[in-house]
Amino acid sequence: MSMVHGEAGYLLQYFQRKSIGNPTFYHAYQMDAEEQITNVFWADALMLIDYEYFGDVISLDSTYCTNSSHRPLTLFSGFNHHRKAVIFGAVLLYDETVESYKWLFETFLEAHKKKMPQTIFIDQDHAMARALIEIMPEAYHGLCTWHLMQNCIKHLGNLMKGESHFLSDFKKCMCEYENEDQFDKGLRNLLVTYDVKENNWFQKVYTIKEKWTSCYMKKVFTLGMRSTQLSESVNAVPEHYILKRWTKLARSETSCNVDVSYVDEDVDLSPAQSYKDICPRLIRIATEACRSPEAFTFLYKITNKLDRHMLESQKNQVNISQVNGFIDKVKESTSIHDDLAQTKGLKKEKATRVQNAQKVG
Asked: Where found, per UniProt (predicted)?
């Protein structure tokens, strides 16, 4: 596709088009001293709504893919009440430094109205971990077990040759032991059997065992993101201990939208603000209606009646000057020439980034 204004211009045009369609669409970018765009974050209306409901436990993964500029696509994700994957935000990172991750976490919280997750799973990236401690100190920081296994294979692959059971024994330490005594006993057997007491990587992993072993994470709210334990046993938990947003009725309750708790009944409220307030609520209703034919038919009839009513209302009450003022505001807010004047394109990495299948620590 032709990019009239170059990469940066096309990206900003895309964001502006999304914002016109839905003012709740959130995007932000960071520039360096040379006025080149380094990091870019965005979250659409559905991502914002999903996080409002299901953002208690999230994961951050930067191993999906890279673009032609060798920027990793990093996603914030989690589960909804049907245990289906949902996305809470996306970012293209120029580099993976502490400063970039600090900007990312601050921007993520800004997009989601400062709502902090209870638990976040990350890989063994030290820069990411340092930034998390500073920006989200109250959230529990767990290690992604998949990344941990990949790093184990990388650092201790020589112990997995032939008929070795090292990997399965390590998995037991990770997931199967019910209490800390069992874990300590199993780990000691592992150390002796495979002689890994002096391995630096294994020693570092052991010092943060409370971030990846099941027996140390029993009191951590994970929603079963590391295993199926929660989803299989949730029916046995008394109803008054289960938040409604984690049941199939999650979206049936009256919810605050992603911008305001309730729309203020202010007669002086500007058309632009009114649109921004009501749009996410209508998007949520439309999203839910499309999940079943009955709901869609019902909403379709209602919207037809509403459409006719609004047309009649406009004929009798609309203020032409107010409409023109609103259009001017939209044009002004969605103009991209100022943004393009301030930016000199997406910053390119001089060194070629090697695309790995997994993050290594």
From this structure: Nucleus
User: How does DSSP assign 58-116, residue by residue?
Assistant: EEEE--S-B-TT--BEEEEEEE-TTS-EEEEEEEE-S---HHHHHHHHHHHHHHTTTPP
Give the list of residues 6+ apart from residue 153 with CB closer than 8 angstroms, or none. Answer: 160, 167
Within its chain, how far is the Cα of 6 from the centroid?
28
- Whether the CB-CB separation of 14 and 4 falls below 8 Å is answered with no
Q: What CA–CA distance (Å, rounded) separates 261 from 104? A: 26
Q: Check the CA dihedral 205-211-214-217 and report its sign.
A: positive
Residue range 275-328, pLDDT digits in tens: 667 777 787 788 788 878 888 888 888 888 888 888 877 776 655 555 555 555
Query: Distances from the Cα of 333 to the Cαs of 15, 29, 35, 327, in angstroms?
Result: 12, 17, 21, 10
CA distance 161 to 330: 64
In whole angstroms, give the CA distance from residue 75 to residue 182. Answer: 35
Bridge partners for 74 per DSSP = 91
- Residue 30 structure tokens: 């960071």
Q: Which residue, chain included where needed, has tokens 């409002």?
A: 52
Contact predicate 214/177, CB 8 Å: yes
Global confidence as pTM: 0.64
Q: What is the dihedral of CA 40, 332, 6, 69, to 10 degrees?
A: 0
Give the CA dihedral 160, 164, 168, 174, nearest 10 degrees: -60
Read off the tokens for 62: 């930067």
What does the domain layout of the chain look like in residue ranges?
1-118+263-351
pLDDT of 233 strictly over 50: no
